[in-house]
Amino acid sequence: MEIQMNIKRAFLTAVALLAVPGFALAQTSVRFDTSLQLVPAGPYTQTIDVTLVCNTGNPLQQSFEIGPLPADKVIFVVDNFDLAQFISCEITPSSLTGFEVVDIQTNGEATEEGTCLWTAAAADLNTREDNYCVFVMAPEEFTYVVEKEFDFAEDVDVSQAFSIHWECSDVLTSTYDGLTDVSGYFKGYGDSTFSVTTLRPNPWAGEEGDATNCSAEESTYDSAVESDQGCDISTTFAVGEGEKSCTIVNSVFFEGIPTLSQYGLAIMALLMLGVGFVGFRRFV
Prior knowledge:
This protein has helices at 2-26, 262-283; strands at 27-38, 48-54, 61-66, 74-82, 88-93, 99-106, 109-110, 116-119, 131-139, 142-150, 161-172, 179-189, 192-201, 212-220, 225-227, 235-237, 243-252. By secondary structure, it is α+β, with helices and mostly antiparallel strands. The strands form three sheets. Strands 10, 11, 12, 13, 14, 15, 16 and 17 form an eight-stranded mixed beta sheet that branches. Strands 3-2-5-8-7 form a five-stranded antiparallel beta sheet, with no helix packed on it. It is rod-shaped and about 130 Å long.
């Protein structure tokens, strides 16, 4: 009897030992190393919230605040993760005023919606090492608009050709390079609108460099055309300010010899006749 009991216990123990690896394979912990990178590198202090949602495990949803420093990253841990039930896990960042996601670095999928996504269908979830998700954000691009207007009749015989020199200082021309100055020319004829795009403002104005400023100055090809130079005063762009514009207005100025109207000429003729008549009577 005792021998039979020992055999039964040994059998149950063996079954339990065989079942443990299978259970461990189905129930595991999954980690997601998540961080924020603000570019170009600089003295940023902004933070965002990141939220992880999985269809299995504990917890199903969790959120943390992260900043741009290496020490500010967070590691999401999902326990009791059932690989047999796994469909997807997704990390979504909150918005950051004046910034936009320009790149996502992940071992999963970088979606068009700006998230990190892992799916069972893609088989990209790592259960042995940390999954990773890096949100790279940069200041949003701004637009500098220069409008050109001619304030005189179209039949005025002057040239409406012009050249406008524009310049923007302390701007970011790419997501990873530092501050620089850029300039160029707008050339055209008649009423026109021009735009400077694909530039990003200085996010550290006052700490590194000055605020981003844009201005424009016109040169006309006809001496009779005057310009109010309405864009020579700098337009300042801060992070998140989007689009700003200025307007240059031209008018016509003619400098010539003063003339009399027909009535003026008639009166002048009568006066001259009167003076001639008086002179004739006096000397005859």
